[in-house]
Amino acid sequence: MGFLAPVLGAIGTIVSVAGTMEEGREQKARYQYEQKVAAQQADEATAASQRDAMARYREGRYLLSQQQAAIAGSGGNMTDPSVMRIMDDTTEQVTLAAETDIYKGDQQARGYNDAAKVAGYNANSAMRAARIKAASTLFSGMSTMFSRFGESNTKTATSSTVTPPYPS
After folding, report:
1. Residues 35, 116: contact at Cβ < 8 Å?
2. Quick one: pLDDT band at residue 155, thresholds 50, 70, 90?
3. What pLDDT is stored for residue 142 in this prediction?
4. What gap in Å lies between CA 121 and CA 30, rounded to an integer?
5. What does the alpha-carbon distance between residue 28 and residue 130 come to, in Å, rounded to a whole number?
C-alpha cells in the first residue's frame, strides 16, 4: 500500500498539468475566435461605409438632377455663374458627406483591427501562461513527492540487535 501514495501523487500532478494545458488551449481558442470576429467586423465596417458613401453619391446625383430640372423649368441658364456655384456647392457637399462616411468606416475598422491584434496577443499569452503554470505545477508536484517519499526523507535505521533467521 506504501507504493500507492507516490503513484497517486504522480497521477494527480500529471492530471493537473494536463488540465492546465487544456485550459490554456481553450483560452487560446477563445481569443483566436475573438480575433477572427473582430477582423470580420473590421471588414464589415469598411464595406458598410463604402455602401453608405455610394448611397450619398446616388442621392447627390438625384439632387443635382432635381436642381438642373428646376433651373431649366424656370428658364435659367446652366452656364450662369450663380447656377454653377450652386451646383458646385452641392457636388462638394455630397463628396464631403460620402468621404466622411468612408472615414468613419475606416476609423471603426481600425478599432476592430486593433481589437483583433490584442486578441491575437492574448491568445499567445494565454498559451504561454498555461505552459508556465503547467511547468510550475509539475515541478511543485515533483518537489512535494520528493519531500515525502524521496531519498532526503528516508530514515536511517539504527543497528538492530535482532539477528536474521538465516545465517549471513
Report:
1. yes
2. low
3. 75
4. 12
5. 10
